Structure prediction request, 742 residues.
Amino acid sequence: MQSPARERLLLGPGPSNVPERVRQAAAAPLLGHLDPAFLAVLDEVAERLRRLFGTGNPLTLPLSATGSAGMEACLVNLLEAGDDAVIGVAGVFGERMCEVASRAGARVTRVETPPGTALEPDAMAQAIERVRPKVVSFVHAETSTGVQQPVAEIAQAARAHGALTVLDCVTSLGGLPVRLDDWGIDAAYSATQKCLSVAPGLAPVSFSPRAVERVGVRATPVQSWFLDLSLLGGYYGGDRVYHHTAPISAIFGLAEGLRMVEEEGMDARAARHREAAAALVDGLAPLGFAPLVEASIRLPMLTSVKLPNSLQGAPEANLRRRLLDAHGIEVGGGLGKLAGKIWRIGLMGENARTAHVERLLTALRAELQPA
Amino acid sequence: MQSPARERLLLGPGPSNVPERVRQAAAAPLLGHLDPAFLAVLDEVAERLRRLFGTGNPLTLPLSATGSAGMEACLVNLLEAGDDAVIGVAGVFGERMCEVASRAGARVTRVETPPGTALEPDAMAQAIERVRPKVVSFVHAETSTGVQQPVAEIAQAARAHGALTVLDCVTSLGGLPVRLDDWGIDAAYSATQKCLSVAPGLAPVSFSPRAVERVGVRATPVQSWFLDLSLLGGYYGGDRVYHHTAPISAIFGLAEGLRMVEEEGMDARAARHREAAAALVDGLAPLGFAPLVEASIRLPMLTSVKLPNSLQGAPEANLRRRLLDAHGIEVGGGLGKLAGKIWRIGLMGENARTAHVERLLTALRAELQPA
Prediction:
């Protein structure tokens, strides 16, 4: 085994560290993708994902690709060429939704808000009323800025005008309560490497019966064969018709990660994320790092902090590299317009612990003290 | 760790068993997807994949999804709406190529051959000459029938008329020699769970400079954002621009699997596959199972056998289930028109060993002896 043995504390925007227990579960001997013993694990994963997503949606499954493919699966199934979509853009991942929807041939109406702020439900509602879109899409926890967005109000406005709703839960699932059915969300996607603390590679997705129905009456085939919900449903929906070979080992790992989430309980887990984030913000203040996002809409699992002037630009990249090389700690830089200006510090899943915050603060203090 | 501990001998069309060494490599502690220590592993994987694909293509990478997504990546990048494609159909996977290409808006000309036979290079050449397609696409090792197809002749005809060539190497890579550059293949995809004996979840792909150039002059964006070669190239091509989070653990596993392939050497590995297949065919004959495919075009890693009349239909499914439950051995049934009529027995990667053939034969003899 020549793989790098070095241990990192992964405090960037994901992946987070994966506990030994989960890594060993994924290392179990393989089963075939039609083996009843594997299908039982798949059923267990679906059931646990439903509870975590807060939904009764039968079509809830771990898509065989990363979170970005989950986004694409939701949008290309629900949109046809010429359909209108209203998309909330509060950062890179809302932006990406616009790109993906455009490539599906949709007419995209963007509702934008500056980086570090949350979408205004009224602005979304006005656009929805004006455009009467087929789909309204936005991000729960915007990973590029660390902002938590209002879900229920926007979804309500969308539903009131007959639109289907798509929600990005990549960074929220497992760290914040998610309640798809209460909120009225028709399609949601997440990823395994954030607050679930499972290796990257799968995108948990869930589709409401309304969404499935809409896919069933499309005038044109879904542009992606790999992501076609009706074909995915043939395997994951219970008939177990071969579509593609499910990633057995990754699903073993996800099953174990979901067991750990439920053993802890989502309330305790959410509280743990809040506590760790509070300790981080408190500890960073004396070092000159101020939160980018105001407290009421700040994510617990991903804190973006403005860098002191002295660190902006090249110095911040050097400092991140020193943290990695000398202390084994990874933190994330800014994306897009925020590159070089902010850091994104993730305390996700198993990593949301004050001991990890202390380790980061100790390393930072050592690096920042006058020479 | 509650994941099923039961061990299966996986002798279906994939997944094959994954050696402990590979599973433990994948269970190593995580690194970030931009960590230099991880990027070194990614570089190593790309270099080993190039050698195995027989190519110098710089853009060679493990796509973050299963083999079917690899097929889709090749076709949707190289085809635009209205483009002509000539596709060789010798089974389910050639058929799937037609479906994927059609969804990309291509005009598909099918060149078909009955299940169990190989494409006629002349028939392909005639279609290519008539249609002058942008893309010619076909399967090296057709997993639904167990047929090995002629690659060099078809690729030559395609190149002679300026077409780009796409080759499915899902079942061949790691079991048969693959020589993309010698053959003149522009885009190829494979999967990890067949002759590489790595867990399913990644699709090794390789694109020639001509293919990359073609993508660069497209008139329309690639319909899939997730599979867009120019975006994938931004990360995998060396600049390491964030596109999606690479599946770190799966890539650790692939790296180890590729190390094992090279330690053995591809010649020895191919010979091992041939020997195991010969032992299988010899051993099955007295039991009434005859090869579907004539010897000259029969795959070594996947043998399809016609079932004795007494086993066709429901009895074959029952017998497969008994093999699984009582003997821990999985074999594959037929797909499509061949369902209920053939079995597909895989001796792939680490599983291509005469000891495994013996175990299967012993189990079959026990099940088939008169009560």
Q: What stands out?
A: The mean pLDDT of chain B is 96.
